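Input record, target 12 of the design panel.
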């Protein structure tokens, strides 16, 4: 492990993890529902959300080998960069990606219910692959939506 002291602290202080869980949910709801456009409160809530989410991710990652965590982070960054560039450059209509998201979601929902009751490693692998596909298409859809609305007006 990268730091045994940090791993021991995060794993023995479950109350702090629970506090951060509720802090993440509460700050996200306040940003989305009430205070998303109120300066400086929105910045304070974003700081609270980021700190709570960072602590929770740190707590989870201390249970894994640092090399695996680093490899997963690098792979995620590379996929995100590649798909963002693709979304900027593609001429495929955005409606296509919206339809793909709906189809993938319809595949993911029953698969998640089946995974709750059947503990088969291959089924979990399939679920993770479909979830990765969902993330990938959503990233393209969201980036393309922002680019199509913002890039054409300037």
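The sequence produced for target 12 reads:
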């Amino acid at each position: 492990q990268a730091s045994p002291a940090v791993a021991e602290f995060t794993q023995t202080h479950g109350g702090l993890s629970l506090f951060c869980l509720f802090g993440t949910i509460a700050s996200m709801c306040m940003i989305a529902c009430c205070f998303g456009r109120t300066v400086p409160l929105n910045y304070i809530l974003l700081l609270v959300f980021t700190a709570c989410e960072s602590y929770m991710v740190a707590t989870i990652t201390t249970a894994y080998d640092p090399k695996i965590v680093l490899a997963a982070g690098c792979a995620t960054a590379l996929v995100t960069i590649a798909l963002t560039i693709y979304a900027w450059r593609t001429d495929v209509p955005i409606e296509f990606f919206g339809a793909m998201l709906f189809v993938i979601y319809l595949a993911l929902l029953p698969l998640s219910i089946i995974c709750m009751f059947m503990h088969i490693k291959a089924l979990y692998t399939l679920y993770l692959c479909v979830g990765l596909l969902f993330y990938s298409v959503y990233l393209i859809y969201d980036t393309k939506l922002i680019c199509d609305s913002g890039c054409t007006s300037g």
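Residues 84 and 140 are 6 Å apart (CA to CA).
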